[in-house]
Design goal:
Elements lengths: L8 H4 L9 H5 L8 H4 L13 E3 L4 E4 L1 E6 L4 H6 L7 E4 L4 E5 L5 E5 L2 E3 L5 H17 L4 E7 L5 H6 L11 H12 L6 E10 L2 E4 L11 E2 L6 E2 L6 E2 L3 H22 L7 E11 L16 H6 L2 E12 L6 H4 L6 H7 L1 H14 L11 H5 L9 E8 L6 H14 L3 E4 L2 E5 H180 L8 H8 L8 H14 L1 H6 L6 H15 L2 H9 L2 H11 L3 H14 L3 H9 L2 H11 L3 H14 L6 H6 L2 H7 L6 H23 L8 H4 L3 H6 L6 H15 L2 H9 L2 H11 L3 H13 L1 H9 L5
Parallel strand pairs: 3-7, 3-16, 8-15, 8-16
Antiparallel strand pairs: 1-18, 2-17, 4-5, 5-6, 9-10, 9-13, 9-14, 11-12, 14-15, 15-18
Helix pairs in contact: 5-7, 15-17, 15-19, 19-22, 21-22, 21-24, 22-25, 24-25, 24-27, 25-28, 28-31, 31-33, 31-34, 32-35, 33-34
This protein binds adenosine-5'-diphosphate and magnesium ion (MG).
The site of magnesium ion has 4 residues, from helix 6.
């Protein structure tokens, strides 16, 4: 079987592991393929899985094999001193070299090679720890030691380490890790400890139980020992005591059987049951909705795993082990299980169709550990001694074959219906008790309330009855009393009545008869009266009817009269309209004549004055007659009243009619007497219409030709009204009319001072800025009139002092226009200069103002002889002028 020197046994082996290369194996330590890194956990089964959740797909996992070399002991040191060791370890290559002879060695490769110096801790970590972790994850696991007696199997697995903690073996350390990982509230750890000797299974925790049967579940293939004692472990200390107890029992049993422990197999079985956290999340009710009820009723999902630690019997051949007192059969029987195990491993390693599991109890017990669903670690123990070279080689070969066995790890989960049912039972009982308590309390409460209510009802009934009785008695008494009183009263009345009745009945009858007669006569009188009243009323009704027809007649007449009146008024207003229309037409005609007629150039002062008068005289005879007739028809008062009419057009027409009338001297007095002048002056102030202003000023100018009227105009503030009219005027004809009116006033001797005092001269002078020759002519006329009156007053001695014209600054304009091209202007100014020059008091101012030269020019050039002479006379009669002329050496 062994290959030549230098060849790796594994590398040359025909049946190399499926899917696992030698190179891959070479560098893989037992720990590196541990549960945490190498295992895939299968998913839990469904609810409908009949309580066992199983997944058929397992995780492949080869049996891991480590070799451990025991240190040389004192006996070996002495005995083997002259011989070379039979093995040599190369832990860095995970190789073991077995010496064949002085020249040849065979090399074997293992998952782990542990030298004589390997600590117990390290052995645990590489051999057992991955298996323990796997068990905690829910997979079955097996750790077993195989080797010749005395090579350290028990040392490796079962050492308690009581003297030295570092000596603790795999079993103690495994339990420590398990207890550290599980939760004692939800998980459980229990232990069985057994010995297999000569195909009989003994319970090391209960020595009386010395033939335990193995039960196999045909469906799942699970092996169980229902007869074995199962101890639940809650702490490490109790576990150690259990182990000690088991050891003691083993020792006692072996003594009894007269054998050694090395000839029996020791099996420790640790059952770990864990609740799976969050397991309920993977399940739901059939329709996919998880209800709270369903949740509360769902059993806990548990994972059950079993760790089996097997300290196998010594692998040496019995005959060689030197045991005595046993028959060969016995010897065969002792090793039956071990050799069956070897055969099974061989079959598995060679993929043989038949694996003789059922040949021994050991193989039946370990059916899961080789070629089954558990994770399995095997440690083979060897010594150095060349004396045991054969046993050592056999052990090595056992290990090599075991390395080829592949397991299929499977997770074992199931629902813990039992504990759920227990829990629910407890809950149900609690609820029943609670319900019973509550029901009792409720019944008691109802009874109490009913009692209370009955007491209250009967009490109320009693009270009510008492009260009613009292009331009844009271009313009865009152009723009796009032009846009694009424009877008494009635008796008394009856008595009185009877007495009265007897005495007065005769008198009463007579009296009543008398009264009846009186009533009858009164009624007759009243009936008669009614009758007469009725006839009177009938009469009155007849007369009332005739009166109302009279009233109707009168009312009709009144209405006719009112209608007539209305008609007449309509006619009057038509006539008035016609009148105004006519007067307007007349005015228009006159205006047309005014504008179209040839310019008149009067040759004297009188003719100038007449120019200011509207040209009534120029009207045709027909019109004159129509106005006169209008005057008579309508009446002056009515026309004047129209000056104040609401309608502006009516006012304009009225003022035009008045102006036309005022143009005729014969009408003037009537107009003034009727208040026309006052109305016209008022119109200047009240109206804003320039036509009204112009026409009214024209009329005033006409009326101002009369001396009496002039005084009236002055007394009524005419200067002020005329000045204001001029100030607001734009039409030169308005200026002309205003200037004409003032010019007329200027010719009144009595009004000189008043006129000047009220600004008449200044008003005249202001109007010259208009520049229209007609206006300038009127201004010049006014100045001439004023100068003439002043001159007259001075001559009569009524005036002293400088001319008011000079005072009011008229001189410059006079000098300026003294030689005006328009003859009417020139003429008036020439006269004015002559009047001013007649008085010595004005001379100086006239010289200063340049008037002297104009006088000289007039005296020489004026076309009118009378004026020329007047100027000359004036110049020569004034000493001042004479002196000045002389001074200027003007020959005069
Ligand atoms: P086995 O169980 O294989 O018959 P044991 O475990 O009883 O062997 O060991 C035999 C002897 O060797 C014991 O005295 C044990 O203390 C000792 N021994 C075994 N292995 C070692 C080791 N690795 N280190 C020190 N002493 C050991
Ligand atoms: Mg032993």
């Amino acid at each position: 079987m062994a290959s030549g020197g230098g060849n790796y046994r594994n590398g040359t082996h025909k049946n190399s592991l499926k899917g696992t290369t030698t190179a891959a194996l070479k560098n893989k330590s037992l720990s590196s393929v541990g549960a945490s890194s190498g295992l895939r956990k299968s998913s839990p089964g469904s609810l409908g899985g009949g309580g066992t959740a199983k997944d058929d797909a397992g995780v492949p996992g080869r049996v891991r094999v480590a070799v451990r070399l025991r240190p040389r002991n004192a006996e070996e040191s002495a005995a083997d001193a002259d011989f070379a060791d039979c093995v040599e370890l190369q832990p860095e290559f995970k190789r073991l070299k077995l010496r064949k002879n002085n020249w040849h060695t065979d090399t074997y490769e293992f998952d782990e090679v542990l030298t004589e110096f390997a600590s117990q801790k390290r052995v645990y970590e590489v051999v057992a720890k991955p298996v323990v972790e796997s068990v905690l994850d829910g997979y079955n696991g097996t750790v077993m030691a195989y080797g010749q007696t005395g090579t350290g199997k028990t040392y490796t697995l079962g050492r308690l380490g009581e003297e030295d903690t570092a000596d603790r073996g795999i079993i103690v350390r495994a339990m420590e890790d398990i207890l550290a990982d599980v939760s004692l509230e939800t998980d459980s750890v229990s232990v069985s400890y057994l010995q297999l000797y000569m195909e009989s299974l003994q319970d090391l925790l209960d020595p009386t139980n010395d033939n335990i049967s193995i039960v196999e579940d045909p469906r799942s293939g699970d092996v169980s020992l229902p007869g074995a004692t199962l101890f639940e472990i809650r702490d490490q200390q109790s576990f150690l005591e259990l182990l000690r107890l088991g050891e003691a029992h083993r020792y006692a049993a072996n003594t009894r059987l007269n054998t050694e422990s090395s000839r029996s197999h020791a099996l420790l079985m640790v059952h770990v049951k864990r609740s799976v956290k969050g397991g309920d999340l993977t399940h739901s009710s059939q329709n996919g909705n998880t209800t709270s009820m369903a949740k509360s009723l769902r059993p806990t999902l548990v994972r059950k795993a079993k760790l089996v630690v097997v300290d196998l019997a010594g692998s040496e051949r019995i005959d060689k082990s030197g045991s005595e007192g046993h028959t060969l059969e016995e010897a065969k029987s002792i090793n039956l299980s071990l050799s069956a195990l070897g055969k099974c491993i061989n079959a598995l390693a060679e993929n043989s169709a038949h694996v003789p599991i059922r040949d021994s109890k050991l193989t039946r017990l370990l059916r899961d550990s080789f070629g089954g669903t558990a994770r399995t670690s095997l440690v083979i123990t060897i010594g150095l001694s060349p004396r045991h070279r054969g046993e050592t080689a056999s052990t090595i070969m056992f290990g090599q074959r075991a390395m080829k066995v592949e397991n299929m790890l499977k997770l074992k989960e199931e629902f813990d219906y039992k504990s759920l049912a227990r829990k629910l039972d407890i809950q149900l009982d609690q609820l029943i008790m609670e319900h019973e308590r509550k029901q009792k309390a409720l019944e008691d409460e109802i009874e109490r309330i009913t009692m209370d209510a009955q007491i209250q009802i009967s009490e109320s009934e009693r009270n009510c009855a008492n009260l009613m009785e009292k009331e009844r008695l009271k009313y009865q008494k009152e009723y009796k009393e009032s009846i009694k009183k009424l009877e008494e009263k009635w008796m008394m009345n009856q008595q009185k009545h009877n007495e009265k009745k007897m005495a007065s009945s005769a008198e009463e009858v007579a009296e009543l008869k008398r009264l009846l007669n009186k009533e009858i006569s009164l009624r007759k009188v009243a009936e008669e009266e009614v009758h007469s009243h009725k006839s009177q009323i009938a009469q009155l009704k007849i007369s009332e009817a005739s009166a109302s027809s009279e009233v109707l007649k009168l009312r009709k007449m009144l209405e006719d009269e009112a209608y007539q009146k209305e008609k007449l008024e309509g006619e009057i207003s038509t006539l008035q309209t016609q009148l105004l229309q006519l007067s307007f037409e007349a005015d228009e005609t006159r205006r047309r004549l005014d504008l179209g007629g040839p310019e008149k150039v009067p040759g004297s002062l009188e003719s100038l004055i007449s120019q200011a008068r509207p040209q009534v005289n120029d009207l045709g005879n027909g019109e004159k007659a129509s106005i006169a007739s209008l005057f008579e028809q309508v009446g002056l008062q009515k026309i004047l009243s129209l000056l104040e009419a609401e309608d502006a057009d009516v006012r304009v027409h009225a003022v035009k009619v008045v102006a036309n009338l005022a143009a005729e001297e014969s009408n003037q007095q009537k107009i003034v007497e009727a208040g026309g002048l006052t109305s016209l002056l008022a119109l200047l102030g009240s109206s804003e219409d320039e036509t009204v202003h112009r026409v009214a000023a024209g009329a005033i100018a006409n009326l101002a030709m009369n001396e009496t009227n002039q005084e009236l105009i002055m007394s009524e503030g005419g200067i002020h009204s005329l000045s204001m009219t001029a100030a607001n005027a734009e039409d030169p004809q308005t200026f002309r009319m205003v200037a004409g009116a003032i010019a007329n006033l200027c010719g009144n001797d009595k009004l000189q001072n008043k006129l000047r005092g009220e600004g008449g001269i200044k008003a005249l002078l202001r109007m010259v800025k208009c520049g229209h020759p007609d206006v300038l002519a009127q201004v010049a006329r006014g100045i001439a009139n004023f100068a003439k009156c002043e001159s007259r007053a001075s001559t009569q001695g009524n005036k002293t002092g400088r001319s008011l014209l000079i005072e009011d600054g008229a001189l410059p304009w006079i000098v300026q226009n003294a030689n005006n091209d328009a003859s009417p202007i020139r003429r008036h100014i020439e006269l004015a200069l002559c009047h001013l020059a007649q008085h010595e008091v004005n001379a100086k101012d006239m010289i200063t103002g340049g008037a002297l030269w104009e006088l000289v020019r007039i005296s020489r050039d004026c076309s009118r002889e009378d004026i020329r002479n007047l100027a000359h006379r004036t110049l020569t009669s004034s000493p001042t002028f004479v002196a000045e002329l002389r001074r200027l050496r003007i020959d005069y």
